[in-house]
Protein backbone atom coordinates (compact mmCIF):
# COMPACT_ATOMS: atom_id res chain seq x y z
CA UNK A 1 0.00 0.00 0.00
CA UNK A 2 1.43 3.40 -0.98
CA UNK A 3 1.84 6.16 1.60
CA UNK A 4 -1.42 7.89 0.74
CA UNK A 5 -1.83 9.27 4.27
CA UNK A 6 1.72 10.28 5.08
CA UNK A 7 1.78 13.17 7.55
CA UNK A 8 -1.71 12.45 8.87
CA UNK A 9 -2.49 11.66 12.51
CA UNK A 10 -5.30 9.21 13.24
CA UNK A 11 -7.04 7.98 16.38
CA UNK A 12 -8.80 4.62 16.20
CA UNK A 13 -11.02 3.50 19.08
CA UNK A 14 -11.90 -0.13 19.71
CA UNK A 15 -8.46 -0.97 18.33
CA UNK A 16 -7.68 -4.05 20.40
CA UNK A 17 -9.31 -6.43 17.92
CA UNK A 18 -11.37 -6.83 14.77
CA UNK A 19 -12.20 -3.83 12.62
CA UNK A 20 -10.44 -1.33 14.88
CA UNK A 21 -7.19 -3.30 14.93
CA UNK A 22 -7.22 -3.88 11.17
CA UNK A 23 -8.03 -0.22 10.50
CA UNK A 24 -5.12 0.95 12.64
CA UNK A 25 -2.76 -1.33 10.72
CA UNK A 26 -4.09 -0.19 7.35
CA UNK A 27 -3.82 3.49 8.28
CA UNK A 28 -0.25 2.95 9.49
CA UNK A 29 0.68 1.12 6.30
CA UNK A 30 -0.71 4.09 4.36
CA UNK A 31 1.68 6.38 6.22
CA UNK A 32 -0.46 7.77 9.03
CA UNK A 33 0.74 8.11 12.60
CA UNK A 34 -1.78 6.17 14.65
CA UNK A 35 -3.06 6.51 18.21
CA UNK A 36 -5.05 3.49 19.34
CA UNK A 37 -7.47 3.14 22.22
CA UNK A 38 -9.41 0.27 23.80
CA UNK A 39 -9.88 -1.32 27.21
CA UNK A 40 -7.36 -4.15 26.75
CA UNK A 41 -3.99 -2.51 27.28
CA UNK A 42 -1.97 -5.65 26.57
CA UNK A 43 -3.51 -6.00 23.12
CA UNK A 44 -2.84 -2.37 22.37
CA UNK A 45 0.80 -2.87 23.30
CA UNK A 46 1.02 -5.77 20.86
CA UNK A 47 -0.55 -3.68 18.10
CA UNK A 48 1.94 -0.86 18.69
CA UNK A 49 4.73 -3.40 18.23
CA UNK A 50 3.19 -4.59 14.94
CA UNK A 51 2.92 -1.05 13.62
CA UNK A 52 6.44 -0.16 14.66
CA UNK A 53 7.73 -3.35 13.01
CA UNK A 54 6.23 -2.03 9.78
CA UNK A 55 8.18 1.21 10.23
CA UNK A 56 5.18 3.14 11.48
CA UNK A 57 4.56 5.23 14.57
CA UNK A 58 1.87 4.44 17.12
CA UNK A 59 0.69 5.35 20.61
CA UNK A 60 -1.44 3.16 22.88
CA UNK A 61 -4.02 4.98 25.01
CA UNK A 62 -5.96 2.46 27.14
CA UNK A 63 -9.49 3.51 28.03
CA UNK A 64 -13.20 2.74 27.97
CA UNK A 65 -15.07 4.83 25.40
CA UNK A 66 -18.26 4.50 27.44
CA UNK A 67 -16.56 6.65 30.09
CA UNK A 68 -16.58 10.26 28.94
CA UNK A 69 -13.30 11.15 30.64
CA UNK A 70 -11.53 8.20 28.97
CA UNK A 71 -12.95 9.01 25.55
CA UNK A 72 -12.00 12.66 25.75
CA UNK A 73 -8.58 11.73 27.11
CA UNK A 74 -7.90 9.53 24.07
CA UNK A 75 -8.35 12.54 21.81
CA UNK A 76 -6.47 14.92 24.11
CA UNK A 77 -3.47 12.60 24.41
CA UNK A 78 -3.38 12.12 20.65
CA UNK A 79 -3.18 15.86 20.10
CA UNK A 80 -0.67 16.31 22.94
CA UNK A 81 1.62 13.63 21.50
CA UNK A 82 1.40 14.47 17.81
CA UNK A 83 0.18 18.06 17.64
CA UNK A 84 -3.04 17.39 15.74
CA UNK A 85 -5.77 14.89 14.89
CA UNK A 86 -6.63 14.50 11.22
CA UNK A 87 -8.64 11.27 11.29
CA UNK A 88 -10.96 9.89 13.97
CA UNK A 89 -12.29 6.36 13.49
CA UNK A 90 -14.99 5.44 16.01
CA UNK A 91 -14.81 1.65 16.03
CA UNK A 92 -15.48 0.88 19.70
CA UNK A 93 -18.75 -0.96 20.09
CA UNK A 94 -20.58 -3.91 21.60
CA UNK A 95 -23.53 -6.12 20.73
CA UNK A 96 -26.05 -7.54 23.19
CA UNK A 97 -29.41 -9.20 22.71
CA UNK A 98 -32.21 -6.80 23.51
CA UNK A 99 -35.85 -7.75 23.24
CA UNK A 100 -38.71 -6.15 25.13
CA UNK A 101 -40.08 -9.27 26.84
CA UNK A 102 -38.40 -9.58 30.26
CA UNK A 103 -36.43 -6.53 29.22
CA UNK A 104 -33.14 -5.79 30.98
CA UNK A 105 -33.00 -2.01 30.70
CA UNK A 106 -29.40 -1.98 31.91
CA UNK A 107 -28.43 -3.84 28.74
CA UNK A 108 -29.97 -1.06 26.66
CA UNK A 109 -28.03 1.54 28.63
CA UNK A 110 -24.79 -0.40 28.24
CA UNK A 111 -25.19 -0.70 24.47
CA UNK A 112 -26.16 2.95 24.06
CA UNK A 113 -23.34 4.14 26.33
CA UNK A 114 -20.61 2.63 24.19
CA UNK A 115 -22.11 2.57 20.69
CA UNK A 116 -23.72 6.01 20.72
CA UNK A 117 -22.37 8.05 23.61
CA UNK A 118 -18.80 6.82 23.15
CA UNK A 119 -18.96 8.24 19.63
CA UNK A 120 -20.44 11.50 20.89
CA UNK A 121 -17.65 11.91 23.46
CA UNK A 122 -14.75 11.44 21.04
CA UNK A 123 -16.34 13.63 18.38
CA UNK A 124 -17.08 16.40 20.86
CA UNK A 125 -13.42 16.43 21.88
CA UNK A 126 -11.95 16.07 18.38
CA UNK A 127 -14.06 18.56 16.42
CA UNK A 128 -12.64 21.75 18.02
CA UNK A 129 -9.12 20.62 17.08
CA UNK A 130 -10.20 19.81 13.52
CA UNK A 131 -11.92 23.18 13.18
CA UNK A 132 -8.78 24.94 14.42
CA UNK A 133 -6.70 22.99 11.90
CA UNK A 134 -9.17 23.72 9.12
CA UNK A 135 -9.37 20.06 8.12
CA UNK A 136 -10.42 16.68 9.48
CA UNK A 137 -12.14 13.36 8.85
CA UNK A 138 -14.48 11.37 11.10
CA UNK A 139 -15.56 7.83 10.28
CA UNK A 140 -18.05 6.02 12.47
CA UNK A 141 -18.33 2.24 12.23
CA UNK A 142 -22.02 1.46 12.32
CA UNK A 143 -23.77 -1.66 11.05
CA UNK A 144 -26.37 -2.77 8.54
CA UNK A 145 -28.39 -3.47 11.68
CA UNK A 146 -28.84 0.30 11.90
CA UNK A 147 -31.15 0.08 8.90
CA UNK A 148 -33.46 -2.63 10.19
CA UNK A 149 -34.59 -4.11 13.47
CA UNK A 150 -35.65 -7.59 14.42
CA UNK A 151 -36.36 -9.91 17.35
CA UNK A 152 -33.63 -9.59 20.00
CA UNK A 153 -31.79 -6.88 18.03
CA UNK A 154 -33.65 -3.82 19.25
CA UNK A 155 -30.95 -2.55 21.64
CA UNK A 156 -28.15 -2.96 19.10
CA UNK A 157 -30.16 -1.79 16.09
CA UNK A 158 -31.46 1.24 17.98
CA UNK A 159 -27.92 2.24 18.95
CA UNK A 160 -26.65 1.93 15.39
CA UNK A 161 -29.68 3.73 13.94
CA UNK A 162 -28.97 6.58 16.35
CA UNK A 163 -25.29 6.59 15.37
CA UNK A 164 -26.21 6.78 11.68
CA UNK A 165 -28.38 9.85 12.08
CA UNK A 166 -26.09 11.56 14.57
CA UNK A 167 -23.17 11.07 12.19
CA UNK A 168 -25.08 12.47 9.22
CA UNK A 169 -26.10 15.45 11.33
CA UNK A 170 -22.42 16.10 12.00
CA UNK A 171 -21.72 15.84 8.27
CA UNK A 172 -24.22 18.59 7.55
CA UNK A 173 -22.96 20.71 10.44
CA UNK A 174 -19.26 20.46 9.63
CA UNK A 175 -18.92 19.83 5.90
CA UNK A 176 -18.86 23.52 5.04
CA UNK A 177 -15.73 23.86 7.17
CA UNK A 178 -13.73 21.09 5.49
CA UNK A 179 -14.49 18.31 7.94
CA UNK A 180 -15.71 15.19 6.19
CA UNK A 181 -17.95 12.87 8.21
CA UNK A 182 -18.85 9.35 7.14
CA UNK A 183 -20.77 6.31 8.27
CA UNK A 184 -19.42 2.87 7.38
CA UNK A 185 -21.89 0.00 7.75
CA UNK A 186 -20.36 -3.47 7.55
CA UNK A 187 -22.34 -6.62 7.01
CA UNK A 188 -21.18 -9.95 8.46
CA UNK A 189 -17.52 -9.44 9.35
CA UNK A 190 -15.15 -11.86 11.07
CA UNK A 191 -14.65 -10.28 14.49
CA UNK A 192 -14.85 -11.19 18.19
CA UNK A 193 -18.16 -9.35 18.60
CA UNK A 194 -20.01 -12.51 19.67
CA UNK A 195 -17.64 -13.20 22.55
CA UNK A 196 -19.08 -10.52 24.80
CA UNK A 197 -22.75 -11.37 24.25
CA UNK A 198 -24.38 -12.52 27.49
CA UNK A 199 -27.35 -14.42 26.04
CA UNK A 200 -25.99 -17.88 25.07
CA UNK A 201 -28.41 -18.47 22.20
CA UNK A 202 -27.77 -15.06 20.68
CA UNK A 203 -24.02 -15.51 21.19
CA UNK A 204 -24.13 -18.77 19.22
CA UNK A 205 -26.23 -17.22 16.45
CA UNK A 206 -23.97 -14.19 16.02
CA UNK A 207 -20.81 -16.31 16.16
CA UNK A 208 -22.20 -18.37 13.27
CA UNK A 209 -23.23 -15.23 11.38
CA UNK A 210 -19.81 -13.57 11.47
CA UNK A 211 -17.87 -16.76 10.71
CA UNK A 212 -19.96 -17.99 7.77
CA UNK A 213 -18.35 -18.67 4.41
CA UNK A 214 -17.59 -15.46 2.55
CA UNK A 215 -17.80 -13.16 5.56
CA UNK A 216 -15.98 -9.87 5.19
CA UNK A 217 -12.50 -9.68 6.75
CA UNK A 218 -11.65 -6.83 9.14
CA UNK A 219 -8.87 -5.77 6.79
CA UNK A 220 -11.45 -5.22 4.05
CA UNK A 221 -13.00 -2.54 6.25
CA UNK A 222 -9.61 -1.00 7.06
CA UNK A 223 -8.68 -0.76 3.39
CA UNK A 224 -12.06 0.79 2.64
CA UNK A 225 -11.35 3.52 5.20
CA UNK A 226 -7.94 4.24 3.66
CA UNK A 227 -9.67 4.57 0.27
CA UNK A 228 -12.19 7.00 1.74
CA UNK A 229 -9.48 9.09 3.38
CA UNK A 230 -7.45 9.27 0.15
CA UNK A 231 -10.29 10.81 -1.86
CA UNK A 232 -9.91 14.47 -2.91
CA UNK A 233 -11.16 16.84 -0.23
CA UNK A 234 -14.07 17.87 -2.47
CA UNK A 235 -15.46 14.32 -2.24
CA UNK A 236 -17.04 13.05 0.97
CA UNK A 237 -18.06 9.40 0.88
CA UNK A 238 -20.67 10.08 3.50
CA UNK A 239 -22.19 6.59 3.73
CA UNK A 240 -20.83 3.27 2.58
CA UNK A 241 -21.78 -0.36 3.13
CA UNK A 242 -19.43 -3.33 2.86
CA UNK A 243 -21.16 -6.68 2.84
CA UNK A 244 -20.28 -10.23 1.83
CA UNK A 245 -20.58 -10.73 -1.92
CA UNK A 246 -22.37 -14.05 -1.57
CA UNK A 247 -24.89 -12.82 1.03
CA UNK A 248 -27.44 -11.01 -1.10
CA UNK A 249 -29.96 -10.58 1.73
CA UNK A 250 -27.76 -8.87 4.34
UniProtKB/TrEMBL annotation:
Q: Which PROSITE patterns match?
A: ADH_SHORT (PS00061)
List keywords of the entry alphabetically. NADP, Oxidoreductase
Which Gene Ontology terms cover its molecular function?
Answer: oxidoreductase activity, acting on the CH-OH group of donors, NAD or NADP as acceptor
* Residue ranges of every copy of the Ketoreductase domain listed in the record: 8-191
Q: Which domain of life is it from?
A: Bacteria
Q: Does the keyword Zinc apply?
A: no
One Pfam annotation reads adh_short
Q: What InterPro entries is this protein classified in?
A: KR_dom, NAD(P)-bd_dom_sf, Sc_DH/Rdtase_CS, SDR_fam
Q: Does the keyword Cell cycle apply?
A: no
PANTHER family from the entry? DEHYDROGENASE_REDUCTASE SDR FAMILY PROTEIN 7-LIKE, RETINOL DEHYDROGENASE-RELATED
State the family it belongs to. Belongs to the short-chain dehydrogenases/reductases (SDR) family.
Q: What protein name applies here?
A: NADP-dependent 3-hydroxy acid dehydrogenase YdfG
Amino acid sequence: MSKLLEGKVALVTGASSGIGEATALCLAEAGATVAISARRAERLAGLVQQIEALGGKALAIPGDMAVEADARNAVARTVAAFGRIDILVNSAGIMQAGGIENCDTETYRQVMDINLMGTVYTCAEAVPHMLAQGVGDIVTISSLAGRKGGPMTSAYSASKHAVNFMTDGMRQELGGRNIRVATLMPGATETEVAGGIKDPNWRTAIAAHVSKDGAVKPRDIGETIVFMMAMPRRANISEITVRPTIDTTA
